[in-house]
Design brief:
single chain, about 350 residues, mainly alpha, ABC transporter involved in vitamin B12 uptake, BtuC, about 75% helix
């Protein structure tokens, strides 16, 4: 597989793989087809496998049988897995563009753990119970975590280098996760309620929950997508982007806001799920190149596919019990994280 040469003015290591439009469209079509197959598989497989006839009957509104009833329950779960996976992948791709850091990810940079900590604090000490308040508090927690990690990573000589941001994010994520455990352990009632949410999962999904979170995810996705062109300019470096007429600070802030909204809302509804935002953008760059106008939508499709696949695997390998998707994505993402570190040597995009 050949790579394009580095564009003039682009730092070493930022060369984007270029692909003809026909190849990109082919990969997008393949991604959509794979997502459709995973949707059917997610509805069909679980504690009780469901036949195609039962799926079609349930889609027509017949929920009288056990299989049809299972389909009715699995469809919103599948939809939630898809929109959360798409949101996390979009958020990760935007964070990598904003920081020019190949290791940027809502989990690794401490943003998802920061959102989780904010939600737990709100529930334990302020009695939050409204789903909208969960999303608002999670978004605020994600934003504060992002600011904190960037401030720590910017300290000292050299400013916010990719290595310093990665280390600051990893340390902050560990601290936030420990604080969540410290708050939950003495509170048995809260601990039982959020035991699986803390791991990260899409079980118990309903259309009401999806309707609550969908506007926030749509807003975050819209902000990231309209920032795609400015993300391409940021990849050239701040000086080059400014020379092209891009307001660097404004572009970086807008893309970061979209990423934080996506990460906060996804964490509020599904818990802190890691590695999706790290793995997917790297895979998508290999397939469709580094142009964010293509990379962002393809990342959304691939992220939806990954989380849906992880949910299917978690339901099948230990049935009738389930493994939450947060555990499955960690098992998939950890080796990829190590590979990226060894391959990129924590250099800038």
């Amino acid at each position: 597989m050949s790579t394009a040469t580095t564009a003039p003015g682009r730092p070493p290591g930022t060369a984007a793989l270029r692909r003809p439009a026909a190849v990109r469209l082919a990969w997008l079509g393949a991604g959509v087809a794979l997502l459709a197959v995973l949707f059917v598989a997610s509805v069909a497989f679980g504690v009780r496998d469901v036949s195609l006839t039962e799926i079609l009957a349930a889609m027509r509104g017949d929920a009288g049988g056990i299989g049809e009833a299972a389909v009715v329950l699995r469809v919103p779960r599948t939809v939630l897995a898809m929109i959360v996976g798409a949101a996390l992948a979009l958020s990760g791709a935007a964070m990598q563009a904003v920081t020019r850091n190949p290791l940027a990810d809502p989990g690794i940079l401490g943003i998802s753990p920061g959102a989780a900590l904010a939600v737990v604090i709100g529930i334990a000490f302020f009695g939050l119970s409204n789903p909208y308040s969960y999303i608002g508090v999670a978004t605020i927690g994600a934003a504060l975590a992002a600011v904190f990690v960037y401030a720590v990573g910017s300290a000292g000589r050299g400013g916010a280098t990719p290595l310093k941001l990665a280390l600051a994010g990893a340390a902050s994520a560990a601290a936030f996760t420990s604080l969540v455990s410290a708050i939950l352990l003495p509170r048995v009632d809260i601990l039982e309620t959020f035991r699986f949410w803390q791991i990260g999962g899409v079980g118990g999904a309903s259309w009401d929950r999806i309707a609550i979170v969908a506007p926030f995810l749509a807003l975050g996705a819209f902000i990231c997508l309209v920032s795609a062109r400015s993300m391409n300019s940021l990849a050239l470096g701040d000086d080059m982007a400014a020379g092209l007429g891009v307001r660097v600070g404004r572009a970086r802030l807008l893309a970061a806001v979209g990423a934080v909204i996506l990460a906060g809302a996804a964490t509020a509804i599904a818990g802190p799920i890691g590695f999706v935002g790290l793995v997917i953008p790297h895979l998508c760059r290999l397939l469709v190149g580094g142009d964010h106008r293509w990379l962002l939508p393809f990342s959304a499709i691939a992220g939806a596919a990954l989380l849906t696949f992880a949910d299917i695997v978690g339901r099948l390998i230990t049935r009738p019990e389930e493994i939450e998707v947060g555990i499955v994505t960690a098992l998939i993402g950890a080796p990829v994280f190590i590979w990226i570190v060894r391959r990129q040597r924590v250099r800038e995009l």
